[in-house]
Design goal:
Strand order of the largest sheet: 1-7-6-5-4-3-2
Structural class: alpha+beta
Low-confidence stretches: none
CATH architecture: 2-Layer Sandwich
Number of strands: 7
Order of helices and strands: EHHEEEEEEH
Shape: globular
Helix content: 25-40%
Mean pLDDT: 90
């Protein structure tokens, strides 16, 4: 099982970061390797999202369940497609008047050794670069931060 965790202090409010990360249908615009994310069903704070990721010849689709707890956390999970287990958790906590601590946890295990050899490095790279992509997107959308 591959696990990646990161915590960053960001100059954005928990609400701003929550809004950015919860906008799953825009991931293809700025997350490397993400091609599509479409909400296929939503009931209150729970959504099911059809996602497509890939690079080069490798492309795969899978459905995730997303639980939104505004503005504190977002939990994403799946056992669909190539995944035996896939989990992502974002938490946002106010750190001072002008920012928040964004914590990112990602873990996954792929269904077979073959898929692990072919796709494992790709998914590991997405997890490592994910927080940076969201931070960059926050700067593009919100400027240098907000004291909200």
């Amino acid at each position: 099982m591959e696990i990646y965790e990161e915590t960053r202090k960001l100059p954005f409010s928990p609400g701003q970061m929550f809004d950015l990360v919860s906008d799953v249908e825009r991931y293809g615009e700025f997350v490397p390797g993400w091609h599509d994310a479409t909400i296929i069903e939503r009931d209150g704070d729970v959504a099911f999202v059809d996602q497509e990721v890939g690079m080069g010849r490798f492309h795969t689709r899978f459905v995730t369940q997303v639980i939104f707890t505004r503005p504190k956390n977002i939990e994403i999970s799946s056992s669909d497609g190539p995944f035996l287990y896939f989990a992502v958790r974002w938490t946002f906590e106010r750190s001072d008047e002008s920012g928040c601590l964004a914590r990112f946890y990602a873990g996954f295990e792929l269904r077979s050794r073959f898929v692990e050899r072919v796709a494992g490095p790709f998914f590991s790279d997405i997890m490592r670069r994910g927080v940076q992509a969201f931070e960059q997107r926050a700067h593009e959308l919100y400027g240098h931060g907000d004291k909200v």
